[in-house]
Write a structure and sequence with these properties.
Elements lengths: L23 H13 L14 E5 L2 E4 L4 E4 L2 H4 L8 H11 L11 H12 L9 E6 L2 H16 L3 E5 L17 H7 L6 E4 L16 H14 L8 E6 L15 H11 L4 E4 L23 E4 L10 E6 L18 H14 L2 H23 L4 E7 L2 E9 L4 E2 L1 H14 L1 E2 L1 E3 L5 E4 L7 H21 L1
């Protein structure tokens, strides 16, 4: 079961640490960055190094230290650093044209045709594409499209949601701190609980979680005294990303789809983090055979080039010229990369490896959990896997500080792994889908070491 490529993509024998972290050259770069760049940065507070280059599922810092990458630029590099198909597409495109607005190019037409051919369910070869730039921009456009077509202002989002923090879409992101930072309110957004099995009410039977959530949504829609204005759309992640890599029960999305159909409400599925093969299907919604009305695509579609899109049903295309307009929407480099990435990821043998290795990851993480006092839950699909850290397994007290220590320990061992979750206490696996088997096993061993060391110190 080693369906990867004919030649190795990553550096062998990683990790390989030659200096104390950060090394002298990295520290020099970090000091310059601290002097010249905004203090609002967060990643450099825990990944204290400067990058020279990346190769496959490994990165090399300015001092020659080699790290295993389970971070992937926050799930942006599903094919890893410098994948030949992506690099060839970029090199070819950069010789032609790097920017033009809306006018068709070979890259644009190939992207449109390739994307339409791999869309989920009834969307396949039957949808319109709207070009955007980032994940937040895609979600913003999706919400605008839903409101424009429904003529209703209110959007239902979910606890634990993350749909972006720039502009009005910050209202759909559940962490209120981001709204405070941006100076936006959550006007015209309301929240329903996400079906989070590990932390859902203990009074609810596991098989009834989805039913309870959907019943609350139906009450919001039907009851004129619910306090919720007319609902013009529901936006949902099929597997929550920043909320903690939460996999909802299998009946949740179908029940939500049925509710939207019954009340003529557009269903927006945000596949920004869960799409492009991350869960072992090209789109996570394919696990339940649910077709969205509008779908958001970003992160790994551009292989690191900022590009995103929404796709939507054709009857929603009654929109005016310059709807959600922008200069940089539909960059030729991003579209060239996107078509190349889809050509690789759509292969069923490629996806089967992601599913198979995902099951292997869950098994290995669960084995570590069985012998750990601080891993409360292991969950995920494909290469979207989380270990939720707690201080006490019995009462599930979030281990936010412990998760930070585990991340630091892993970094010092040469493994990049980041946190997420309602409490910032979930260690999430988001390595490239092309990662070699030995880097999976080495990373798992380092993770186990870090867990044991953190347990002893706590």
């Amino acid at each position: 079961m080693s369906v990867q490529t004919s030649s190795r993509l990553s550096i062998e024998n990683a990790p390989l640490l030659k200096t104390k972290i950060p090394g002298p050259k990295s520290k020099e770069f970090l000091d310059i960055q601290d002097t010249l760049e905004t203090s609002s940065r967060s990643y450099t507070s825990f990944f204290r190094f400067a990058i020279d280059y990346g190769k496959g599922s490994t990165v090399v810092d300015m001092d020659g230290n080699v790290f295993i990458d389970w971070f992937g630029g926050v799930s942006v590099l599903n094919l890893g650093h410098g994948h030949p198909a992506v690099m060839n597409a970029l090199k070819s495109q950069v010789e032609k044209i790097t920017h033009i607005t809306e006018v068709p190019t070979e890259a644009r037409i190939k992207y449109l045709k390739t994307l339409n051919s791999v869309l989920p369910g009834k969307m396949k070869n039957n949808s319109k594409v709207h070009m955007t730039v980032t994940g937040a921009d895609a979600c913003e456009a999706a919400v605008s499209l839903a409101r424009y077509n429904s003529k209703k202002p209110t959007i239902i989002a979910f606890s634990g949601s993350y749909h972006g923090i720039a502009g009005g879409i910050v209202g759909a992101t559940s962490n209120y701190h981001y709204r405070d930072y941006a100076g936006f309110s959550s006007q015209n957004y309301v929240y329903a609980p996400y079906p989070y099995p590990y932390r859902f009410s203990s009074k609810t039977k596991p098989e009834d979680i989805s039913k309870e959530v959907v019943e609350r949504i139906v009450e919001m829609i039907r009851d004129p005294y619910s306090g919720v204005p007319p609902v013009g759309g529901i936006i949902v992640e099929p597997v929550q990303g920043e909320g903690g890599y939460i996999v909802p029960p299998d009946d949740f999305l179908p029940m939500l789809r049925e509710t939207c159909d019954e009340h003529s409400i557009p269903l927006i599925i945000d596949e920004v983090q869960s799409g492009i093969g991350r869960t072992g299907k090209l789109w996570a919604s394919e696990y339940q055979n649910v077709t969205p009305d509008i779908m958001c695509i970003s992160k790994s579609i551009g292989g690191g080039i900022p590009i995103s899109s929404i796709v939507y049903r054709k009857d929603f295309d009654q929109i005016p010229k310059a709807f959600h307009l922008g200069t940089y929407r539909g960059n030729p480099l991003g579209m060239a990369a996107g078509a190349a990435i889809l050509d690789v990821v759509k292969d069923e043998q490629f996806l089967e490896r992601v599913r198979s290795k995902g099951r292997y990851l869950l098994k290995r993480f669960q084995e570590i959990q069985d012998n750990s006092s601080i891993i409360g839950d292991v969950r995920g699909r494909g290469f979207m896997v989380a270990n939720e850290i707690v201080t006490n397994k019995q009462d599930k007290t979030p281990g936010t500080e412990l998760a930070g220590k585990i991340r630091e320990s892993l970094f010092n061992k040469g493994l990049l792994m980041h946190t997420c979750g309602h409490y910032g206490n979930a260690m999430r696996f988001m390595a490239p889908l092309t990662i070699e088997d030995d880097l999976l096993d080495t990373g798992i061993s380092l993770f186990q070491e870090a867990i044991k060391e953190t347990e002893v110190k706590s």
